[in-house]
Amino acid sequence: MTDVVELANKLAEECLAVQREVGDERLFMEVGTVIGASSQTLEEAFLTAIRTRMANDKAREFLAQKLKSHRAQT
Q: What is the mean pLDDT of residues 4-18?
């Protein structure tokens, strides 16, 4: 199972880079569909890897905005 997670993590990183470059925030869903046609296991690992990275990015943006707002008030 570790190989699947490693593959999913690498693919997630590549997919997010392409998403940013082409400006398509939902590209990962299309990639997930392509993967799912061959391997449900890899699809699930990929979507988990994507979602955790996207959630992490959003949380970091939120914290940065909070800190920026706080510093602007002081």
A: 97
List the domain boundaries for the chain: 2-73
- The tokens of 2 are what? 């570790």
Q: Which of 18, 30, 66 is nearest to 10 (CA)?
A: 18
Mean pLDDT value of segment 21-27: 97
The pTM assigned to this predicted structure is: 0.87
**For residue 25, pLDDT beyond 90:** yes
- Report how far residue 8's alpha carbon sits from residue 25's, in angstroms, rounded to the nearest whole number: 18
If 0-12 CB within 10 Å is exposed, 13-18 middle and 19+ buried, where does residue 36 land?
Answer: middle
Enumerate the H helices of 2-39 as residue ranges. Answer: 2-22, 27-36
User: DSSP assignment, residue 37?
Assistant: T
Structure tokens at 7: 């593959």
Note whether 53 and 41 are within 8 A (CB).
no
